[in-house]
Amino acid sequence: MSFTTVFENIAKIMAQYWDVFLIRGVSMTLLLSVITVFFGSILGSLFALGRRSRFAPLRFLIVAIVEVIRGTPILLQLYVGYFIVPQILSFAKVSDFTSISIALVINSAAYVSEVIRSGIQAVDKGQTEAARSLGLNGRQTMLKIVLPQAIRNILPALGNEFIMVIKETSLASTFFIGDLMTSYLTVKGRTYLSLECLIIVGTIYFILTFVLSKLVGLYERRLKSRD
Questions:
Q1: What are phi and psi of 72, to 5 degrees?
Q2: Which of 103, 135, 173, 217 has the smallest count of CB within 10 Å of its CB?
Q3: Contacts of 111 (CB under 8 A, 6+ apart)
Q4: Architecture of domain 3-226
């Protein structure tokens, strides 16, 4: 098969199935990524704060969860979420999309918690001691002094996490929830043109991640220029 034939096939596929890739696939991939990073950041923040708790059983539980998630393949976690979440939430009708989203959120939370924890630890301890000497308690010190500075250091890392999640959502196609890789499987099944469909999907993934990485880099440079 010549390159000319490949490009001609790509043009034909995009002319006929552009909505499958660009509307359904991209929108579902971005939606899943936004849900994952947003709720993963919230849960990850709770994990990071929980690891600083004086309640030892809580610290042990959170550490165990984070280590298990970081030490197992994400595809395995998606399978667990796909089969376990509907049983746990048996009182509600849980869709495949919801089950996979929950699994991705928990996975993201484990990594985000480490990012947040390192951001908190990067704040000079002298500022914490100064805040306590001024009469602020531990919670006030964390909310008013430590977290605002930590968040500034964390945001670029969260941007990179969003980029990683966009690529990780490709594994969700195993469960046909409508993401970009699901679009590839759908169009490939109709056209029997695997290579051309892979090139289209790969190009879309590259454009999404490239643009986002440039935006994150621009934000990091602006943060550095303010220091």
A1: -125, 155
A2: 135
A3: 44, 70, 161
A4: Orthogonal Bundle (1.10)
Looking up tokens 């999309």 gives 97
Name the H helices within 71-179: 74-88, 96-122, 125-133, 138-141, 147-168
Tokens of 60: 């042990």
- Alpha-carbon separation of residue 128 from 45, 54, 59, 144 (angstroms): 19, 17, 21, 10
Place of tokens 């006929």: 16
Residue 44 contacts residue 110 (beta carbons within 8 Å):
yes
CB contact burial 186-216 (16+ within 10 A = b; e otherwise):
bbbeeeebeebbebbbeebbeebeeebeeeb
Q: What is the pLDDT of residues 158-210, one digit of tens each?
A: 888 889 999 988 998 889 888 899 999 999 999 999 999 999 999 999 999 99
Mean pLDDT, rounded, of the chain: 87
Per-residue pLDDT reduced to its tens digit, 79-103: 999 999 999 888 878 889 999 999 9
SS3 label, residue 92: coil
User: Are the beta carbons of 9 and 196 closer than 8 angstroms?
Assistant: yes
For residue 56, give the H/E element and its range: helix 56-70
Q: Residue 199 corresponds to which tokens in the numbers above?
A: 């090139």
Cα-atom radius of gyration of the chain, to the nearest Å? 21
- Per-domain residue ranges of the chain: 3-226
Q: Most distant CA pair in the chain: distance in Å?
A: 75
